Structure formats: structure tokens, C-alpha cells
Amino acid sequence: MPQLVFSDYPTQIFWLVVTFVALYVVLSKLVLPSIARTLGDRDSQLQGDIARAEKLRSEAETTLAAYRKAIGEARAAAQAELKQTAEAMAAEAARREGELAASFAERARAAEAGIAEAKTKALTELKNVAGDAARDLVTRLVGAAPAPQDVAEAIQASQQGTARQERA
Is the residue at 6 inside a domain? Predict the structure, then answer.
């Protein structure tokens, strides 16, 4: 086996050292700086991405807070407008109800006045009818017509007696 030939060791060690130094120089001057530069770029890009992500997160939190505030203000404004509209509608309904009640009251007063007028007219007519009937009855029973004044006094006395009975 050639590797066990001890006389070849010094030349093998020499070429090992030369190869190792050459490989070391090539790696340290060409490859390792490129790898270090790539790792440095990658690290700075990661740091930049992390910083940008933090900035975006803080902007998102600020935007979310503003959104929540705007939603709260919009809800409050909507509630205030709803309350104001409800109050306006209630006031309008109360006004219309008052107008309707006044209209009904006016109609009721007019109807009561018409009823009172009709009652008065009916009572007047009733007195006349009662007087005519009493005169006709007395004329048929007695054969002579009574004086209109006597009939009116009899009807008046009858009404006063009826009024006293109603009060008692």
C-alpha cells in the first residue's frame, strides 16, 4: 500500500500543506467574503423586514383604533338622531292628537248645542201639543173650550211638579 510507504511521507505532507494553504487562500479571499456578504445582506433584509412589519403593525393598530372610534361616533350620532327623530315624531303625534281632540271637542259642543236646541224646541212643541190636546180633551168632555191662558197655567204647574219630583 502506497500510503504506508514512509519514505513518501515528507512529499505527501508538503503537498498536503500546499493544497491546504491554496484551498484556504481561495476560500478566504473568494468564497468566504461572498458568503459573509450574502449572510450580512440577508440579516439586514431580515432586520428591515422586521422593522417594516413592526411599523405596519403599529399603523394597523392606529387605523383599527381610528376605525373603532369612528364606529363609536357613528353609533352615537345614529342614536342621537334616532332619539331626536322619535321625539319629533312624538311631538308631531301629540300635536295632531291635540288637534284631533280639539276638533272632537268642538264637534261634541256643536252636537250638544244642537241637542239642547232640539230638546228646547221639542219641549216647546210638546207644550203646544199638550195644550192643544188638553183643549181638545176638555172641549170633548165639557163641551166648552177652555181659555188658552188656563191651559198654559195648568201645563206650567204640571212641569213644576215633575221638576220637584226629579230633584227629590
Answer: no
